[in-house]
């Protein structure tokens, strides 16, 4: 059985007493009119998707589609794109060898047999490999997208063709977003017993709309800062009635996906959308956590002058020691060429900041939710919105000044470009093992609380990926292991290690 020993430690709860009901949505207010003919609420394709998502104005909800097996238990843009999506998935599998290895090792044992997993993540070729791995391990899956712009339509079609109940397409409205989640949860004769979430919206929906289903969930796996924060709010309020696994704070997620993925994809997203040259540009990065560290390393390497804003003195000191100047946003807002948010907070960039920005300043977000930039404040009659290319809006002030807003303040890399497949394999493998652990854990191992991934599992995920680099681990001698007080086979770090 691919389960790990039980973990007694727990993360400290957040001090924030904010009610769990106050959720940012993935979209802003979409009913406000624009002063141009084409609204940015329309579907646009980005480089992240092979197919053009604006080729059909008919909503997928109004279409009657069936796959080759005659099933219509899905809702995607165009089921005919499945062949292209299958090629995308096959390409992703080549760089996700560890997850494929896990699939091959465990599919005979079927550790997720009987699991009914409802998921809400980005739907890309990489997450498709994860979904199909869960199915190969015995699970039944129903899936929706956690972001209205990150879905690869052809990949969603390929999943639907393979029999996965997927409800997602690129360019969903806010109403579509919640409708898709509800279709995943609410199905006669099928009741979820596991949740895999990215951002907490699915968990929130089940908790609020289907409390009886929520009480019967055997485990929740959450991978984002935002979603984890919401789980701790529930736990602190005594309302979390199921065990949950905090994957975001596992070492194999935070120190790899958050850092290395963002280090490479921040430049990709900015280049594809704006063609900007970074040498000599002044950039302010809001937040110096793992995501911020990755972004700053990439920008600095291309010659940008990088400023940091931080609330945490430890992260601020790290930024100083890495050679960055730590400032308040108000101190540099008039002079910077690019503003990047990656805090997980809300209203980091306000209308006051936007009013003071220089002409042609680029504004984007690398955090999970679209709450970091106050985009709603820009939807006012005196400002003109001009769509210049996919996921790029010019917001024009009465005096002619324009700010370049990317992806309407949503996650830049997955909305506007692609992300490195290999590093997502690390996260996906971690998610799969967390689901296996929670689903197979004996009664009493996990209580109604939020847990960190056992360190042994973190190390196992890392070990699966080392063969890709032809890396050879040194083994401790018996005497060395005794000297360090460690088992020769690990874990090599304490559970509190981050």
TrEMBL record:
This is S-adenosyl-L-homocysteine hydrolase NAD binding domain-containing protein. Residues 33-52 have a biased composition (Low complexity). It holds the Pfam family AdoHcyase_NAD. Residues 258-419 form the S-adenosyl-L-homocysteine hydrolase NAD binding domain. PANTHER family: ADENOSYLHOMOCYSTEINASE, S-ADENOSYLHOMOCYSTEINE HYDROLASE-LIKE PROTEIN 1. PROSITE patterns: ADOHCYASE_1, ADOHCYASE_2. It comes from Felis catus. Its cofactor is NAD(+). Residues 24-72 are annotated as: Disordered. Belongs to the adenosylhomocysteinase family. It comes from the Eukaryota. Keywords: NAD, One-carbon metabolism.
